[in-house]
Amino acid sequence: MTRPKADQYIGLECLDRVGLLHKALTRVNALSGGQQQRVGIARALAQQPELILADEPVASLDPASAHKVLSFLRQTCQEDGISAIISLHQIDFARIYADRIIGLSQGTVVLDGKPADISGDELNQLYSDKDNSHYEGFQEIINS
What we know:
Layout: H1 5-17, H2 33-46, E1 51-55, H3 63-80, E2 83-88, H4 91-97, E3 100-105, E4 108-113, H5 120-125, E5 135-142
Parallel strand pairs: 1-2
Antiparallel strand pairs: 2-5, 3-4, 3-5
Helix pairs in contact: 1-2, 2-3
């Protein structure tokens, strides 16, 4: 199937933005996990969204790759005026990259604020339920 030149240009531009233009002809299954996540971000950006929803975008990545992906995602959202809602279970990443953290327990919001205003103890309480039966994690929100 032939794609219009404009779509090809947008796709290549988005790959360039995530630092993967040199991999444009490489099969996705030949890319590392971090590269695959960045391809996913490029695909999302090609849609020119106003909002990005990401469920555990770095769960399967090593810490260095996770930092790269979250840093890039944050920077891109800020530059393009895109809001992002990201579900994470890694407290440290949320505290570094989020503008706002919302913590959920039993379907109820138990934390909601800027990372600097939420103590480590409050965040750790989300994980302290002995059987974890009520744990639902937290969300980070990157506002444009």
